[in-house]
Amino acid sequence: MSTPPQMQKKILENPFVGSLIVPIAIVLFGSLIIFGITKMLSSERSYKDLVEEIQSKTFGNKWVAAYELSKQINSSQIPKEEYPWLVVNLTQAYKQSIDPRTRGFIIAALGALKTDIALPALQMGLSDADLDVKFHAIVSIANMPKGIQFEWAKLISLLQANEPILKQASILALATHAVPEAQAPIKTLLNDTNFIVKYAAATALITYKEESAIPVLKEILLINYPDAKARVLPPALDAQQITDLKLSVLSTLQKHQWTALNDVILDVSNKDLNNSVATKAKEALNLLKK
User: Fold this and answer.
1) 235 preceded by cis ω (within 30°)?
2) Is the pTM of this model over 0.85?
3) Average pLDDT for residues 85-100, to the nearest whole number?
4) Cα(241)–Cα(18) distance, integer angstroms
5) Interval 112-143: pLDDT, tens
6) Which domains does the chain have, with CATH numbers?
7) In this structure, what is the dihedral angle of CA atoms 72, 170, 258, 225, given to the nearest 10 degrees?
8) Residue 52 or residue 283, greater confidence
């Protein structure tokens, strides 16, 4: 596994969740977002120069080139007619790379293309030995356009991963694409011992209007906030994390027009101590009643 510094980020801030967001504070590995990279990036290198550097047999910071390439792709600097060439060369570089950081950012670059022809490489990323690379692959798959033709079995199998972060990311990616065969496996995670995974599963199941998720969704919406002066230590959620979590559930219920929790939402709108949550509950309730 690669070992760059770990950092706290909210899953709300990650692009892969699309319309389905569960903003619980989780640890994402530092290879996802690297501070100080800007100082290492050379200026004005073309995407072909970057691919050549990634493929080079000489020792160097190939992962920095892969990261810079993913930035160029995300900023739409590369013409789409070059995508097939990029996919072929980056897939080859992925297979030949022994550095997990490089492999991870290659997968991120391939995912940024948002093209079906990159899916076979992303499928390989799901089976990578490195956890960071797997995470990049899940993020990339979730960012793909809706309706892709993909073999979902491997991603579904990651719902049983030992690492909660892989479980949570897989839950959200599968629900983002509303994969029908993922509903039952996600449902089993309502009983997961990790409450972050459990809450992610419940929120994801709103996509399917799965009634067995209702008790957990109610639990989320009625979580008490810690005292303002209390020192909150992980894994407990602080007031902001609870707020974000409640807002996520309300937004997702509203998006999918699921009225099963309207009574609870009414209670939240009248009694929640956080004005932003109470206001969002009122908004959601008004739209869900239409």
Assistant:
1) yes
2) no
3) 95
4) 19
5) 999 999 999 999 999 999 999 999 999 999 99
6) 7-211 (1.25.10.10), 223-290 (no CATH)
7) -90
8) 283
